[in-house]
Amino acid sequence: MSEITKRFNALKERGGKGFIPFVTAGDPDLETSRRIVLRLAELGADVIELGVPFSDPMADGPTIQRSSERALRGGIGIKDILDLVRKVRLETRTPIVLFSYLNPLIRYGFERLGNDAAAVGANLARLPSAVGFLEVPRTGFDAALDLVESSGWHAAKYRTGGTTPEAFPTEAELASFLVASTTRGLPFKLTAGLHHAVRSTAYDGSGSEQHGLLNVLVATRVAQQVGDVTEVAAVLAQREPGPLVEFLEAWDEPTCTDVRRAFLSFGCCGVTDPIDDLVAAGVLDAA
Fold first, then answer.
1. Which residue of 101, 252, 277, 286 could cross-link 197, Cys pair, CB 3.0 to 4.6 Å?
2. Are 208 and 196 found together in one domain?
3. Residues 256 and 172 in one domain
4. Contact between residue 174 and residue 180 where contact means Cβ atoms under 8 Å apart
5. Are 105 and 151 within one domain?
6. How far is C-alpha 103 from the chain's CA centre?
């Protein structure tokens, strides 16, 4: 059993929540990163995400973008980051996740990365029993999904929103990803933009067309059963909760299990954002 699995099992047993901070490796330099990681471990971090700097991190916000720029100006690469993990491992056993875009990993080589990461004690580089996510492109992702599937990593990550209207994929784009992932039997997480239960236009005046959490749940099942992009896109376009809730209410326990094995998790600026909508739709009981 991996150290990460042990820690999450312990959290589950005591009903606690995990503290998983993120640090861009090499910002502003490797020695400072080492001290930051060790301090986070001392403060009780359950897992530490160590970001691999990338030259075009457009899916991230300005803070992470700038931190990557600073690290890259210092010449930081994966070999340096693995050496950083090796030094940290001399003082703490807190699990460290290498958090990266696909591009640097492809360039380094998956097999080489797995061997080198295991040698220094980096977690999730080659642990099929744990969940390691690799972000895939918004379109043209088939080759990336094939790499995720064959590399020993566990799941794909797809971005469903951002800070501009252009950052939100269309129904057809997201539907294509859901079909491609479920056809491969590849689990996935969705990041950003799922603020509401049902597809809607953003209330902030930006005009962003935001996907709904209920839409994605139902669309995942339709993708598993039918595998047709057009039908999945139609589910993602639904703006009324009624048909989606009716579909969900017909699910038995095996169906729920199948969907959850595919759609592992989601993220947005406030992870509780969809809860009020779900209560209003009758999916969740009011607290």
1. 277
2. yes
3. yes
4. no
5. no
6. 16
Q: Is the CB of residue 218 less than 8 Å from the CB of residue 198?
A: no
pTM, to two decimals:
0.58
pLDDT at 23 over 70: yes
**Residue type, position 73, single letter:** R
**Amino acid symbol at 265:** S
Residue 98 lies in a domain: yes
Instruction: State the pairing for strand pair 209-210/200-201.
Output: antiparallel
Sequence letter at residue 13: E
The total number of structural domains in the chain stands at 2
Cα separation, 164 vs 200, in Å, equals 15
**Residue 77: CB partners within 8 Å, gap ≥ 6?**
104
Question: Which among 84, 108, 130 is the end of a domain?
Answer: 130
Question: Is the Cβ–Cβ distance between 110 and 147 less than 8 Å?
Answer: yes
Domain that residue 36 falls in? 8-130
Q: What CATH number does the domain containing 35 carry?
A: 3.20.20.70
pLDDT of residue 59: 59
- Buried residues in 216-237 as b, exposed as e (16+ CB within 10 A): bbbbbbbbbeeeebeebbebbb
